[in-house]
Specification:
With about 300 residues, the chain is mostly beta strands. Helices cover about 0% and strands about 50% of the residues. It has strands spanning about 5-10, 20-25, 30-35, 40-45, 50-55, 60-65, 70-75, 80-85, 90-95, 100-105, 110-115, 125-130, 135-140, 150-155, 160-165, 170-175, 180-185, 190-200, 205-210, 215-220, 225-230, 235-240, 245-255, 260-265, 280. The strands form six sheets. A five-stranded antiparallel β-sheet has the order 1-6-5-4-3, with no helix packed on it. A hairpin with a 5-residue loop joins strand 13 and strand 14. Its EC number is 3.1.1.99. GO terms for molecular function: hydrolase activity. Keywords: Hydrolase.
């Protein structure tokens, strides 16, 4: 993986709303924001641009690194480096950026999409077909040694994954269903899938999500131009409009975990919004939870 020249923030872009700031403008399909607690940085990816980004809010610098194939997510590891959900499986970059496969399983026409680290340090990864064929994707649990345990094999667009503060609930999005589903979570994994929240037609499609310190779920609405916050009992508590049509995912970050970072996309838009493809930040909007590192 070759390191590209660091990109600084440059001239500030003026968003269409007074609660939102664009800090980087550099992605075709931004995804997977994750606050790396140990490094004090925000990790995010450009799936189709084949890049892992590292944003430092203190300096405003964003450092992209090229990958050899499409990448759905990158997460920090306890032992240093990153674990990645790639087109052909789960990769591992050490602290010196040397790459190896942790779980290599290429499937023609399929790629990795969103991923998240559970409270127990296991990695939950989703896949999808490039043509978004119904049922062509999966949801799996990756153990620290690379062992893969399949949970779902009939997913269409595997997206947001998150856990309640006490770790007993796991949330999951298969985007075309327009739902956020919920599982019971134990050391043995996830079970008891059931619908939790349904997004009404015309409001967009649920994409990536994060859980805050109150146990509320924030979800990005693809083609909905907004974020929504749902309380633990599934009640819609807040709608935050955004200056882009296609937000993809969100994560709390910053020194106090009070800033909400939002990745966005310009892919598929004939006339994209001026800030489409930007990394956005909503300062002091809530209180996030520290995200665990992968146990490998």
């Amino acid at each position: 993986m070759a390191r590209e020249k660091s990109k600084t923030r440059g001239q500030q872009m003026t968003p269409k709303t007074d609660v939102c700031e664009a800090v980087v403008d550099d992605a075709e399909l931004g995804e997977g924001p994750t606050w790396d607690v140990a490094a004090g940085r925000l990790l995010w990816v450009d799936i189709l641009g084949c890049r892992i980004h590292s944003f430092d809010p203190r300096s405003g610098a964003d450092s992209p690194m090229a990958t050899d194939q499409h990448i759905g997510a990158a997460k920090p590891c306890l032992s240093g480096g990153l674990v990645t959900n790639m087109r052909d499986g789960i990769g591992r970059y050490d602290a010196a950026n040397n790459f190896r496969w942790l779980h290599h399983r290429p499937v023609p026409g399929r790629r990795g999409n969103d991923a998240a680290v559970a409270p127990d340090g296991t990695l939950w990864v989703g896949t999808m077909r490039y043509d978004e064929r119904p049922g062509g994707g999966t949801l799996s649990r990756i153990m620290p040694d690379g062992t893969a345990i399949l949970l779902l094999d009939d997913v269409t667009v595997s997206n947001g994954i998150g856990w309640s503060p006490e770790g007993r609930r796991m949330y999951f999005v298969d985007t075309p269903t327009r739902r956020i589903d919920i599982f019971d979570y134990t050391d043995d994994g996830a079970s008891g899938r059931r619908p939790w929240v349904e997004i009404e037609r015309g409001a967009g499609f649920p994409d990536g999500l994060t859980v805050d310190a109150d146990g509320a779920v924030w979800v990005a609405l693809w083609d909905g131009g907004s974020l929504r916050r749902y309380t633990p009992d599934g009640r819609l508590d807040r709608v935050v409009p955004l200056p882009v049509r296609r937000p993809t995912a969100c994560a709390f970050g910053g020194d106090g975990l009070s800033d909400l970072y939002v990745t966005t996309a310009r892919v598929g838009l004939t006339h994209p919004d001026p800030l489409a493809g930007s990394l956005l930040v909503l300062p002091d909007i809530g209180q996030g939870l520290p995200q665990p590192a992968f146990g490998g």
